Every structure is written in C-alpha cells, then in structure tokens.
Amino acid sequence: MQSRKIIIGIITIFTVLILSACAGADEKRNTETESNKEENVESNNDEMDMEESDTNEDMEGMDHSGMNHSSTGEVPEGLQEADNPTYQVGSQAIIESDHMSGMNGAEATIVGAYDTMVYTVSYTPTTGGEPIENHKWVIHEEIEEAGDEPFEPGTEVTLNADHMEGMDRATAVIDSAKETTVYMVDFVATDSGEEVKNHKWVTESELSPVE
Question: Are 103 and 162 within one domain?
Fold first, then answer.
C-alpha cells in the first residue's frame, strides 16, 4: 500500500513537471510570435514611409505649380501649322494629361495645331528654387540654339519659352525628344473652374475624341 502511494506520488510529480514544461514552451512560442508580428508591422511601416518619401520626391521633381495656364496665343517664328491634324482647329477633344491641376479630363477647344519636335527638359529656374525635371513640353522653335536638326537627349540648351516662371533664358538639358503634332488649347480647369486660354502645349497622344 505504501509503495503504491509512492508510485502515485512520483507519477503526479512527473505529470506536473511535464505540464509546466509544455506551458513554458507555449509561452515562449507565443512571445516569439508576438515579437515577429511587431517586427513585421514595423518593417511594413518603414517601407510605407520610404515609398511615400519617394513619391513626394518624384512629385517635387515634376512640380508645375508655377506654370502659366494661359498665354497670348503667339507662337515662335518658323513654327509650321499642321497640314492635316487629327484634331482640327475649332474642334473639341478631351485632355488626358496632368501637366497641371485641373487639366486631366477637361474638354478642350483646339486653337492651333503644329507639326514639330517636342522635348521634355530639366532645368533650374532663373528665379532660383529647386530644379524642375522632365517638364512637358518645350518645342524645337522655343530653343535658342535650334537649327534644322533635332536635339538629342542629353544636349544642353537655352530655353526661349515662358510657360513657367523662371523658364525663359534658363539653361536646360534635353531629357527626351519626339516628332509629333502639338496643340494649343482652350479649356476650363476641372478643379477650379478657371478658364484657360491658349495653353501651350498638348501633344496628339494626350488628347482623345469627345464621345
């Protein structure tokens, strides 16, 4: 009888020890899981912060807040009118470009259509401030050094355009070049209701027919 009690006691002690060990292991696993979750959350937050920072930097590089929406309608000397443009002068088209606020989705009236080389350019405004990158668009006839041949990307030029404050006479680098039809357009900004006259420039690929 006494032996049986001793055996039962030993079994009880072993059971308690085993249960305690299992509980400790579970607690350790739970602690590790919670720690991993916290690390993943922190990592995701850091990635989101980096993505937001990169997006802000890209937007700063393409800042067009100083763009002159309207113009006098004068065009550079030597600019040739398009013989048979897709969008005829006086017709309407939808702008599919976001050079500036309120432009994308606006219904435009075509004021002028011209065949030329168009460039995206990067430059530092003559008035100071941050460099402007990939500005759309400057046409061939708005560059001081323009001749018969188009400029290659990477070429340094002098701008003779006043689309934005500090642009005229600024030194710029050609980022890209393509031959196309460009349009001067009138439109009403979708966000402010501002009536924009003789806006320069919108390319043919940035317009779509009015349905």
Answer: yes
- Please tell me the pTM assigned to this model: 0.69
pLDDT of residue 106: 97
pLDDT per residue as tens digits for the range 130-158: 999 999 999 999 999 999 999 999 999 99
User: What's the rounded Cα separation, in Å, for the pair 66 and 55?
Assistant: 20
Binned at pLDDT 50, 70 and 90, residue 100 comes out as confident
Q: What is the pLDDT of residues 72-91, one digit of tens each?
A: 889 999 999 999 999 999 99
| Phi, psi dihedral angles at 123 (to 5 degrees) | -160, 165
**Is the peptide bond preceding residue 201 cis, with omega within 30 degrees of 0?**
yes
Mean pLDDT of the chain: 79
Residues 38 and 92 in one domain: no
State which H helix or E strand residue 150 sits in.
none
- Whether 134 is in a domain gets the answer yes
Is the torsion defined by CA of 130, 136, 138, 140 positive or negative? positive
**Structural domain span for residue 170:** 80-209
Same domain (yes/no): 47, 130: no
Beta strands in 59-209 (DSSP E): 80-81, 92-95, 107-123, 132-139, 156-158, 171-188, 195-203, 207-209
DSSP symbols for 84-116: S-SS-TT-EEEE---SSTT-TT-EEEEEEEEEE
